[in-house]
Amino acid sequence: MIELTMSPTARRSSTSMNMVIAALFGLILIVPGVVMVAVGLPLGWLYLALGPVMIGLTALLVRRQNGNSLLRFGDGTYTLRGLGREKRFTVDDVERVVTVSRMGLGALGETHHLIVVGRDRRLLILVGYMWSIEQMTQLSDDLVGRGVPLYPFPQPITPAQLRAVDRRLIPFIQAHPVASGLLIGLGALMLIIVILLILVFILVALS
């Protein structure tokens, strides 16, 4: 059996990437919190507190994920362990393996990917911030050696272009980050509006 873990360099890259994302979501909470406090709404202090809490919790979870991450294969079964439950499948579940040499992740830059696709869903996706090219090559060689077709993308490609090839290859939120960000922002705005309306209703009822 072959067991692969994240290298120290990959752990640093993963931590940096996730902390940038956490900081952005923290700002989504902090900015409306500042506005609420400025207009005299006590709920704003909760938003101001949740931002740093989210960033701190992300740091703890990323550290745990980096320490627990393990990729095991070698006998026709494949196991990936991370922060959540283990992902496990066999070579019989695999339809093809896709390697991407360069694909961007928005402001985080370009990196390599390996994607294992089943008959009706994506079984596994490995990102270069966590796994090296050498580690991905070991996994793809093992799959190809067991008869799994390999589909390489050596040229640079965008997430949207890759999803256009096959929707199973990449999640919508990664393929369309702008649209996903707008939807998340709209959802956050609607939540704030609902909370404000509830507060107004309570104040009117108490007056």
Tell me what you see in this structure:
The mean pLDDT is 79. It is elongated and about 70 Å long. The longest helix is centred in the first third of the chain and has 31 residues, at 8-38. The protein starts with a strand and ends with a helix. Helices cover 54% and strands 23% of the residues. It is built from six helices and eight strands. A four-stranded antiparallel beta sheet has the order 1-2-3-4, with helices on one face. Strands 7-6-5-8 form a four-stranded mixed beta sheet, with helices on one face. A hairpin with a 3-residue loop joins β6 (110-118) and β7 (122-127). It has one domain (2-182). By secondary structure, it is α+β, with helices and mostly antiparallel strands. α1 runs antiparallel to α2 (43-68).
